[in-house]
Amino acid sequence: MEQSMLEKSDELVMKLLHFFITEKGYSPIVLHGAKNEIWLENIGSSYPVVRIVSNYIHNDEQLHYDIYRTKQILKKVQRKTCSLHMDALSLFVNLGESVHMEEFTHIGNISCASIQKISDLKKYPFIIEEFPTITKKTTFKEKGVELFFKITKDISKKNEEESKKAEKVFEQKRPIITYLLIALNVVLFLAMYIFGKGSKDATTLVEFGANFGPLVKMGEYYRLLTSAFLHIGILHLMMNMYTLYIVGSQLESFLGKGKYLAIYLVSAIAGNLLSIIFSDYVSAGASGAIFGLFGALLYFGYHYRIYLGNALKSQIIPLILLNLLIGFTLSGIDNAAHIGGMIGGCLFTMAVGIPYKSEKIDRINGWILSIIFIGFLIYMAFYGIAI
């Protein structure tokens, strides 16, 4: 009888695993010391973490301790994935009769359910509301060993597909667009010395297309873009091109050449629009566009934080904050262009989408927010009161 119950419990676990992995895109979380329980994650779900617990829990005290331990582990997962809030769903398939499950259905950010058979899922409206197809998708015509092999095959196939997607995204590709952008910046820098009086001469900068509010407002709109390819001094050029090479080559590889170039150009325009709202002096540089790449990398890293969580916390965010701090503390730096570019880059990345993560609704919202943001900048730059 015990062997029969064990087999039913294992079959239930396999069916639940099959649903969450193949139907809902969850991935296993490797935890050291976690016995008789499986942790799954899907950051985009209302329940980013799902636990399937086969460990026998015979009374309320044991369940209290299990929930406490789950909260501690959940905090670690939350920090690792840079998540501000994280709900978890714990599915217990082997609870004793002494457990009063109704008292543990919702404990803080953890929801619990006792599942002895698939039909028990219907007892929990919060599960059916979030996963309306769960009972249908966990019903199989196969039985016994045949069911085991089918579920194992399906899960392996899904995991292989996800691994190939991640490998394709993070595979290093030659950053052709980044090289071309750097080359164009260098050529124009040299041209200002060959055909003008140098990169620090205001007249030469204006002649080559630097950003200058009064001229832009008179109809020379091209300056919103051309100024992003001009630099004031060799140090300015070298710092921006080095940053562009480091950040741009990675982002071009992650997003693809077309999306990357579009984000770069939109960020440059957004940064220069915000610049002329706050100032009326001559400005130039790729910093606004590069900060747009920072914004894009932040958005990308958030969605791929399972892979980039540590880099997001220890490298990307500190780098952005450091550059903003430098802009606020040192004179002669167009911090408005930096902020405008970063916001524009982040929003436009949402609009164009990132591989295998962006839903249609996310891209629609991204387009709406991008249009509103750019529209607001245009209105403020051309019709608003100078700040």
Overview of this protein structure:
Helices cover 63% and strands 6% of the residues. The chain is an alpha/beta fold. It folds into two domains: 2-168; 172-382, Rhomboid-like (Rhomboid-like fold, Up-down Bundle), CATH 1.20.1540. It has a six-stranded mixed β-sheet, sandwiched between helices. Helix 10 (234-255) crosses helix 11 (257-278) and helix 11 packs across helix 12. The longest helix is centred in the middle third of the chain and has 27 residues, at 144-170. Residues 1-6 have low confidence and may be disordered.
Secondary structure blueprint with pairings:
Elements: H1 2-23, E1 27-29, E2 37-41, E3 49-53, H2 60-80, E4 88-92, E5 106-107, E6 110-114, H3 125-130, H4 134-137, H5 144-170, H6 176-194, H7 202-208, H8 213-217, H9 223-226, H10 234-255, H11 257-278, H12 287-303, H13 305-329, H14 335-352, H15 360-382
Parallel strand pairs: 3-4, 4-6
Antiparallel strand pairs: 1-2, 2-3, 5-6
